């Protein structure tokens, strides 16, 4: 597998495009088809392709075990933190309209939805990559 | 045994094809699915939230608490796999 030139070259070309497309899908969630779940899975697919082509060690170099856990907690924290922000502004939990009314910024509701989608995307990306890396790892090979 | 299985498949298939003709046509505005809550969402998403995608508006805003639960479910699955498979290493 390591010596296969075709797989390595195609993956090296394809991975950046897959990641840019994943970011596009996440950010485009409020305007058209897309969202955090789909974009996160596409982003994790790029890491899975890197695992297939370059081996687990190169993925671990870019996204270590510690940072995978940090990212998966960070996504939920963004989501729940925006909900708590609505609570602090005097609304109900996850009632984004309150923030838009108090701060007076137009279209803030949509931007908060984008932030929530980004949080979902980070969590889904980290969890999918974590599952694949843990299953491909042969007992502490590169952890 | 195979004849019985074939009979069962034919029986269920005939029933399913029989019910197809009672379903509303694709995109029928008089269908029950587009009459009540669907109409409400289509009319009120733009003034309420101000984004174009009705699906995202329902997913993240109207049903935001539900989606938070879904993300927590995915997070719990990931943590479970980590705890089960990643033995001996640091978290």
TrEMBL record, chain A:
The keyword Chloroplast does not apply. Residues 6-129 form the Na+/H+ antiporter MnhB subunit-related protein domain. The chain crosses the membrane at residues 12-31, 37-56, 68-91, 111-133. InterPro entries: CPA3_antiporter_subunitB, MnhB. It comes from the Archaea. Keywords: Cell membrane, Membrane, Transmembrane, Transmembrane helix. It is found in: Cell membrane. It is a multi-pass membrane protein. This is Cation:proton antiporter. It comes from Methanoculleus methanifontis.
TrEMBL record, chain B:
Keywords: Membrane, Transmembrane, Transmembrane helix. Residues 32-87 form the MrpA C-terminal/MbhE domain. The chain crosses the membrane at residues 67-85. This is MrpA C-terminal/MbhE domain-containing protein. It comes from Methanoculleus methanifontis.
